[in-house]
């Protein structure tokens, strides 16, 4: 019997090693799109994802306050930045499979799954690109401690698909659009061409993930005749802890379907 998409998602979520998790993610994405193209789509089904995804033994996960500060001017500081990015990308792989697995019971058009499978596949590529850079610099993912709090948004919104879309792609991934250009600058100044290329790929593809979030958020609000802006403000205030931090990348946010009246009222 063929596996369902939600079963495939759970397989990725329960694989601990980063390289293995991302290889499986890529394999499942390829199978999903091949079946769609052949006109014999893989059924979505329903499955029970773990509350938290499996993770490798390293990195050690610390409270954000205890993660050592990075000084971008030094090679060690740049390794620390890339290590933090690798950690974000690995979480992002799981976040995109988790939205598929977690909400299999909510009827959605096939394009919803296409978007998140594609995003998960891109995150898998991002993780591997950054791991390759770390290894080229004599380090690796797991060499430094990382943020423990990153799965909190997923846990908080495990019963609320609108809350999940509001907080994960439309707040957290949108924040990535704000901060990535500054990161690219740091690596350009240091002449680290490999990292610059990897971060440019990430920057270009993350616009799409925010856009998918906004698209399906608006779709669900429209299906229930809700005002998307008001619902967004309510959900972010419920599930996101703290204010949004300007400066915002207004141009890329606009490209991703996030208008200023969505995020400015939530800023400091
Ligand atoms: Fe990414
Ligand atoms: Fe993303």
TrEMBL record:
Protein's name in the database: Uncharacterized conserved protein, contains ferritin-like DUF455 domain
Alphabetical list of InterPro entries matching this protein: DUF455, Ferritin-like_SF, UCP012318
Region span, Disordered: 43-73
Superkingdom per UniProt: Bacteria
Record field: compositional bias (Basic and acidic residues): 54-69
